[in-house]
């Protein structure tokens, strides 16, 4: 092993440790790794930037815009509502929405599908006295499996497609992965509706749990006539930056003021509702004219007014809020919403709200104001409860025109009239010309953090190939599996990729494993397509942990799940997917 190989290996291992322990956002960790490799001379600037011009990566950027235009319509919501209300048998209802959800995921990014379906499913479950925990993991898994069916079903397929074009000059066709994706999806959904349903927990949703435990983190203080700051603002009274407490609502007779602004003036008789560390309330009571009120039945309904709503959101992987404290984000001013509680891994973080450092996957319970809908950013968090608002009449022509352009794109790629990249470019141009989406909306639809991660991963993979590290690792792995035949080779590639996916991210796992798998395929003299297909499926098949795939993280908090729920339900599904994949790859591509 040369010093360059050793250096790249150490840097990659440190990168993996950073991703596993979530020391920063994944895209930042990957970009820092790429920068180190460039500054130390391992990569030239041209080699480091190679991923930023990769066809697969650029196709993903264009598809974000196409999906954004389709997502603007309420077609998915209407479809899901119709399916859920079609039957009263829980398992039949589940099968009826899992198959369409997986089918749609073959052509649209599964993240917005899960985000759109989750509030509708949760409301239906609550209305029918069913735990959403019986439905949300199956929803995530079904969309993951559906994404395996087509080239455009998931960004992972497009990443491997781009790598394959660079390596061999030939990528996937649009339905090539359907040989595996279709049987995996059918078998997987049958498993989820039967055995998986029994393995899933039956838990309360966060809002029910929060309402039941509201006395633990909500407290009430009465403003007496002798309070020296009557007529003064909340800011002037020093109630905005309290140690351990946050003022979320003021009850004034029949009026409820929430969220509370810094400029709100205090009046005698006001009931001040605080959230946070209730143990610190004694310090507040030392202020003249403030008295803790213990004679009321305090609940979440107490703090809601006609314009405010209780909303749950999940912090996304690409969020600008991640790794900042609630106070640093300026949450209330930015989104017109107060954070009542932060839940991580199904447990409420018992700390002053403003001092909590947010992480991807955290579930926030918000008390929102009337302007929340206009201010919220879908890239910062996913809203997983329905937001009630007046429905505007939607132009059905726009809905069908957006779907028509999507269908045209799929048609052109299916019959090899255009490449995926060219067809996606045409679709974006048509949507902009016919105003299906505005330039600003197009820009907001693109998840630049995801693109930075993918582009950086391409450069890191290039460093592994250039220094010979990929060949070195491949040679050692080949010496282990060669005596056992091709099945052992496919098994090792699948397991290694899948383990990386469960620990880090699917795209990073695919890019890191691709050069190693290509070298192994070359040394064993088998079709590189067999290795590429195996990596694409294994990198998507994240069923065992909530951290490996974004949709698993989205339903983690809203479903009230624990880590072991994913292990219990996901392990059998992961094993079935592996067996089907290896069998079909060996049959079709070896």
Automatic annotation (TrEMBL):
Family matches, as InterPro entries: Cit_transptr-like_dom, DASS-Related_Transporters, Na/sul_symport_CS, RCK_C, RCK_C_sf
PROSITE patterns named among the record's database cross-references: NA_SULFATE (PS01271), RCK_C (PS51202)
Gene Ontology molecular function, alphabetical: monoatomic cation transmembrane transporter activity
Compartment annotation: Membrane
GO biological process: potassium ion transport
Entry membrane topology: Multi-pass membrane protein
Protein's recorded name: Di/tricarboxylate transporter
Species assigned in the record: Melghiribacillus thermohalophilus
Lineage: Bacteria, Bacillati, Bacillota, Bacilli, Bacillales
């Amino acid at each position: 092993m040369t010093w360059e190989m050793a250096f790249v290996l150490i840097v990659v291992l440190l990168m993996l440790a950073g991703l596993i322990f979530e020391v920063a956002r994944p895209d930042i960790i990957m970009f820092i790794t790429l920068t180190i490799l460039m500054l130390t001379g391992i990569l030239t600037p041209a080699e480091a930037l190679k991923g930023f011009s990769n066809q697969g990566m650029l196709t993903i950027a264009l598809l974000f815009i196409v999906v954004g235009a389709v997502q603007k319509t309420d077609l998915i919501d209407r479809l899901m509502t119709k399916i859920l209300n079609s039957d009263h048998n829980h398992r039949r209802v589940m099968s009826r929405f899992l198959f369409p959800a997986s089918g749609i995921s073959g052509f649209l990014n599964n993240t917005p599908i899960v985000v759109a379906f989750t509030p509708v499913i949760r409301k239906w479950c609550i209305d029918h006295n069913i735990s959403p925990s019986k439905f949300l993991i199956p929803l995530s898994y079904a969309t993951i499996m559906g994404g395996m069916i087509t080239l455009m079903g998931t960004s992972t397929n497009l990443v491997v497609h781009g790598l394959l074009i660079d390596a061999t000059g030939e990528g996937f066709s649009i339905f090539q992965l359907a040989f595996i994706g279709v049987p995996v999806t059918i078998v997987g959904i049958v498993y989820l509706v039967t055995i998986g349903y029994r393995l899933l927990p039956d838990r309360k949703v966060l809002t029910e749990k929060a309402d039941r435990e509201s006395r633990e983190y909500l407290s009430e203080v009465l403003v007496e006539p002798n309070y020296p700051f009557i007529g003064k603002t909340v800011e002037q009274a020093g109630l905005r930056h309290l140690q351990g407490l946050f003022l979320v609502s003021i009850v004034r007779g029949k009026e409820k003021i929430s969220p509370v602004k810094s400029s709100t003036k205090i009046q005698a008789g006001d009931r001040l509702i605080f959230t946070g560390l209730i143990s610190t309330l004694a310090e507040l009571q030392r202020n003249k004219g403030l008295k803790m009120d213990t004679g009321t039945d305090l609940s979440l309904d107490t703090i809601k007014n006609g314009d405010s709503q209780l909303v749950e959101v999940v912090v996304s992987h690409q969020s600008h809020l991640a790794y900042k404290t609630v106070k640093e984000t300026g949450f209330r001013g930015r989104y017109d919403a107060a954070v009542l509680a932060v839940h991580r891994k199904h447990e409420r973080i018992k700390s002053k709200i403003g001092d909590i450092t947010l992480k991807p996957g955290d579930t926030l319970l918000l008390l929102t104001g009337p302007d929340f809908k206009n201010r919220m950013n879908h890239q910062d968090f996913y809203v997983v409860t329905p937001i009630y608002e007046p429905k505007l009449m939607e132009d059905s022509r726009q809905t069908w025109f957006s779907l028509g352009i999507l269908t045209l794109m799929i048609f052109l790629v299916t019959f090899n009239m255009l490449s995926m990249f060219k067809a996606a470019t045409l679709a974006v141009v048509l949507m902009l010309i016919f105003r299906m989406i505005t330039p600003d909306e197009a820009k907001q639809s693109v998840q630049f953090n995801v693109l930075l991660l993918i582009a950086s991963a391409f450069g890191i993979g290039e460093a592994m190939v250039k220094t010979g590290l990929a060949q070195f690792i491949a040679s050692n792995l080949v010496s282990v599996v060669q005596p056992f035949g091709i099945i052992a080779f496919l098994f090792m590639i699948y397991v290694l990729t899948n383990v990386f996916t469960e620990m880090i991210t699917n795209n990073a796992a695919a890019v890191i494993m691709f050069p190693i798998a290509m070298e192994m395929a070359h040394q064993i003299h088998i079709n590189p397509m067999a290795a590429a297909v195996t990596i694409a499926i294994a990198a998507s098949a994240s069923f065992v942990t909530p951290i490996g795939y974004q949709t698993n993280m989205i339903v983690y908090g809203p479903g009230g799940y624990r880590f072991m729920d994913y292990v219990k339900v996901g392990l059998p599904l992961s094993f079935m997917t592996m067996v089907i994949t290896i069998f079909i790859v060996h049959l079709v591509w070896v």
